[in-house]
Amino acid sequence: MTDPRTFHAMLSLESPRIYLLMGGAVAVAFAGARFLRGRRALLTGETIAWQPARPTRRHVAGSVLFGIGWGVSEACPGPTAAQLGAGRVLALAVAAGMVVGVALQPRLARLPAGLRRTTGVPTDAIPASDVL
Amino acid sequence: MHATLDSTLAWWIAGPILGLVILCFLGLANKRFGVVGGVTDLVHGSAEGRGPGSWRAVLLVGMILGGLAFALLAGAPDAGTGYSWLDAHLTFGGEVAVLFGAGLAMGVGARTAGGCTSGHGLTGSALGSPASVVSIATVMATAIVTTFALEAVV
Prior knowledge:
Number of domains of chain B: 2
Radius of gyration of chain A: 18 Å
Oligomer: heterodimer
Number of domains of chain A: 2
Largest sheet of chain B: none
Shape of chain B: globular
Shape of chain A: globular
Strand content of chain A: under 5%
Distance between the termini of chain A: 20 Å
C-alpha cells in the first residue's frame, strides 16, 4: 500500500486484491469481536463493549468528500502514513492537507446558518474522541 | 529479504493480520483501531489524550515508522518524488497542489464522518456499526466514481 498504484488498480476495479484484503480483515475482526464482547480487556480490565452508531447525514457527507479525495490522490490516511516513512516525498502534501482538514473541520460548524443550509455542510462537529 | 519484501503479501495473509491488529486493540484495551483519531489527537487532542500523550497518536507514529522499517529492509522502493498517474499529467508543483487539496478533502471528510477507511471500513464494520457500513460504502462508491471520472476526463 505504499504505492498509490495499488489503490488505482483497486478503485478502477482492475484488481480485487485490496477489497479481498479488507474483507479478510473485517471477517477475522468480526468473528474475534463477537468472541471478545463482554469479556475483560487483558491490559485495562474494562469490559469489552461497543454501541452501534446510527448513520447520519454527516457520515454520508463526510464520506463523499473523503471518497473524492481518495479517488484523486489514490491514498488514504493509513497508507499515507506508511508512505511518509517509506520516503515518498509527495505523501507530505497529502498528509499536510489531511492535518489542515482535520484542524479546520470543527470550524465549518460555525459557518453562517444560511451558508450551511445552501451548501449542506453538516452542522455538528463530533467529539474528537469519537473519531475512529 | 529483498525478494520476500518485493513480492506482494497475499490478501489472505495481510487481511487476517490486519484483523488481528484490530482484535489486539479491542481485546487488550477495548480500543477502536483507526488512523484519523491519531491525526485528531495530534491536532486538537481529545479524551484519548493530546499530542504524543495519546495512544492514537503513538499508533500513527508507529505506522510511519513501520513504513520506514519497510523502506530500510526492502531498499526503499518507494522513496523519491514519484506518485502514480499524476506524474504524467502534472508538474511537481501541480502535484503538490492537487495532493494537498485531496488531503484537505480527506481530512475534512474523515473528521466529519468520524472515521476513514480503517476506522469505519475495518473496525466499525467489524463491530457491525450501521454508521460505519454506510460510511465505507459511500467512501468506496464515491472513490470509484471519482476514479472513473478522472480516467474519462484526463
